[in-house]
Specification:
The structure is a single chain. This protein has 390 residues and is mainly alpha-helical. The protein folds into two domains: 186 residues, Growth Hormone, Chain: A, CATH 1.20.1250; 192 residues, Growth Hormone, Chain: A. Helices cover 85% and strands 0% of the residues. The two termini are 39 Å apart.
Length: 390
């Protein structure tokens, strides 16, 4: 039963990834339809992220009161409402209203499922889980592309909503499986779990949150600015080739998580993070190498993504071990909020910075966050270890 439920959980994370790529892939046509500047996509994206932060912060209380299966069911339903709402929006301002259920649903799924897997499954399962998120994020641009070639951008959102409805049906059918994975003692632990204020006082928590913020800042900066880096530093590249570089980090992340899924149980989360950041640093050094040819830098970004791959899942999976099950729900909720704050604001700050200095500063920016990430995590390990030994 546990394996069957895990397959359903992987499907849930595919559903989490599905909506995330639609705005970017559909915006060129949406912008024309709404008659707004291209930059206005950022305001919609920030609204979705803001609601995701709120739902992540609310997740510890929700997990304490409701079973994960009900949080997931309602959250997927909210994302369906968001997708259908986007599909019928005729004015730009309507997108902000629809962004509320859109973002709330995503944050609740992310935090609650990560908490559930961290407490019930291995590090390997956590890495595969985040790999399946990537599957969803890869599928949705193809759905939007098909819609744009045969209908309109609205259909891209509507067709994705239909896929989500199918996943929701599977989740509803599988509801009895969740009950069989928990016993009365585990349910009691969840009811006794700590709140956010109490959790923030636990040694190592704040350092871990800042480290997570640093990681997601670097990751999101790569997602947004990698094509621009090649456009600004390499000569003679076609627009199509430059656009394709947006998949370098994403492909690296999926590769890193796939590899980690097979080795993480043997290596452990801490060693996996250390190795991941070491690989990431090698990739950053390759991007540093001057020259007009793009292949070395392209390989560098793939290596950066591969190194980043296990970091996010491993930090989340360590929460129960480092801080105890009493605090794990609040820690993971806070981590999700930190992640979305970093991914929302730091790419924007880099955009301002590169306008003043130049896009070639990108590897320096990534290096700073990589060093912050590993440095703060190592300090957090010392605090949690000393607390356990004391």
């Amino acid at each position: 039963m546990g394996s069957l439920l895990l397959a359903v959980i992987y499907l849930i994370f595919i559903s989490l990834g599905l909506p995330d790529s639609l705005l970017g892939s559909g915006w060129p046509k949406m912008q024309v339809a709404f008659d707004v500047p291209s930059s206005y996509a950022g305001y919609v994206s920030m609204t979705i992220s803001f609601m995701t932060i709120i739902s992540a912060l609310l997740s510890p209380g929700l997990i304490k009161k409701f079973h994960t299966k009900w949080i997931v069911t309602v959250s997927i339903f909210l994302t369906i409402l968001g997708l259908l709402g986007f599909s019928v929006s005729k004015e730009y301002w309507m997108l902000f209203l629809i962004a509320v259920p859109y973002g709330l649903g995503a944050g609740s799924i992310d935090a609650s499922v990560n908490h559930y897997v961290a407490n019930h499954y291995s590090s390997s399962a956590m890495n595969f889980l985040h790999c399946f998120y990537g599957v969803g994020a890869v599928i949705s641009p193809y759905i939007m592309s098909l819609a744009l070639s045969r209908a309109r951008w609205n259909e891209g959102y509507r067709w994705t909503a239909f896929v989500q409805m199918g996943i929701l049906l599977v989740v509803i059918i599988s509801l009895p499986l969740w009950k069989k994975t928990e016993n009365a003692a585990e349910e009691e632990e969840i009811r006794d779990s700590a709140g956010i204020k109490e959790t923030l006082k636990v040694p190592g928590v704040i350092l871990t949150l800042i480290a997570f913020y640093a990681y997601c800042s670097g990751e999101a900066t790569c997602f947004l600015w990698t094509p621009s880096f090649f456009a600004g530093t390499k000569e003679g590249l076609s627009d199509e080739l430059i656009a394709s570089f947006g998949s370098l980090i994403f492909g690296g992340l999926m590769l890193g998580r796939l590899i980690s899924g097979f080795i993480s149980n043997k290596l452990g989360d801490k060693l996996l993070i250390r190795l991941g950041i070491a690989v990431e640093l090698i990739g950053i050094i390759m991007v540093f190498i001057p020259g007009t040819h793009y292949m070395v830098a392209a390989a560098g970004f793939v290596i950066i993504g591969t190194g980043m791959g296990p970091i996010y899942p491993a930090i989340q999976h360590m929460a129960p071990e480092n801080f105890g099950k009493k605090y794990s729900a609040a820690v993971i909720g806070l981590q999700m909020a930190s992640a979305y704050v970093g991914s929302t604001f730091m790419p924007m700050i880099f955009g301002i910075l590169q306008q003043q200095i130049g896009i070639a500063v990108m590897p320096v920016y990534l290096l700073i966050f990589a060093i912050l990430n590993i440095g703060l995590l190592e300090l957090a390990y010392r605090q949690t270890d000393s607390k356990r030994s004391g």
